[in-house]
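Collaborator request, handled under Task 6.
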Amino acid sequence: MAYQAKSALEVQLDVLGALMLRDIRTRFGGTIWGYSIAVLWPCAHILVITAAYVVIKKPSPLGDSIVLFAVSGLSPYIIFNYMSRKMMEGPMTNRQLIYFPQVKFFDVVMSRAIVELCTSSLSIFMVFSIAAFCGANIIPRNSFAFCESMLLALFFAIGMGFLNVFISQMLVQWQIIVIVPILIIYFTSGTVIVVEAMPAIIYDYVQWNPLMHIVKVCRSAFYPGYGADADIMYVLIVSGAMTLIGLLGIRFVVPRFLN
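Structure tokens returned to the collaborator:
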């Protein structure tokens, strides 16, 4: 029995590896340059935000470095945005593979999630490297808080990704509709502004945004005393609930739409 279980595991890993390799080759043209664009694209996002602050001559809302402010806020968003959307696109672009007996629907979802995890990790590494080149002090004063924020962002992204996969299989238009909530999450998360500067009535609603709490945890790693009111338990509950709903939907509801 142990040998059979090991063989099944090996087959599953081979399928995941093949799906990941196919995903990289088809999406990025099979070249290092294509994949480099995907990795460097978030850097352009941070560059635009930083340039906007410089052009309008607006000082950094926290600290003295606008580069560090942008990097500390956008790093969690990079993980959330790309993974939550790309996980949803995986089954849509690889639907024909699901008809092979060895390939399961969940394999396609997980292979895309792993590819996006690697891509996002490389993107954040490049972002911090560029920030260091620009003279920003990118060494977190609280390494634990920074790692905690990255893990929270990953959990939130995976939960949103599973939920997006579930909904998009029943409503194809969700790939477009989901842009609206993602933009709302982005603009109310404090990635480019300090949410405490918002009017009190708006700030009360903003606190329902899990990414806002994650950004606060991330910034607390660089700005001592900031983000003490971040609600980590709330992020875990919301992320766990989305993951559970998404997985249950993928397991029991999605197969009916595939048949």
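The cover message to the collaborator said: "The chain has a mean pLDDT of 85. Residues 105-133 form the longest helix (29 residues). Please let us know whether this matches your experimental observations."
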